[in-house]
Amino acid sequence: MIPADRDAGAKEADVVLYIDRQLTRKYRKLQPDYRQALAVIDRAARQLRGMPFAQLPAEDRTTLLMSLEAGKAGREMFADGGKAAFEMVLAHTLQGFYGNPRHGGNRDYASWRMVGVPPMPV
Question: How many other CB atoms are found less than 10 A from the CB of residue 73?
Fold first, then answer.
């Protein structure tokens, strides 16, 4: 959701580590929502191109995520067209990217460096 360009993206900033940690802590109650959303997104990718989401070309991943963001994913998969799932993952991605590295994301202060905030080690 935050691709790398001249600066680190979500992958390089360990946002997945942040989300994984929070799903065992603060967001534990959201584990079923994540499991369901990820399974449905994977199923949608397989219907679109016959492969899991992670293996889709970047353009197809973007198209699929844009349909979720707009709430236009199949209603047979998501009651709201995927909007709530997209917003949940986006919120946690932003937290992991811009938050304090002590929580598991923003490795090496990637986003802080990008916006010119000096790193403040804990």
Answer: 23
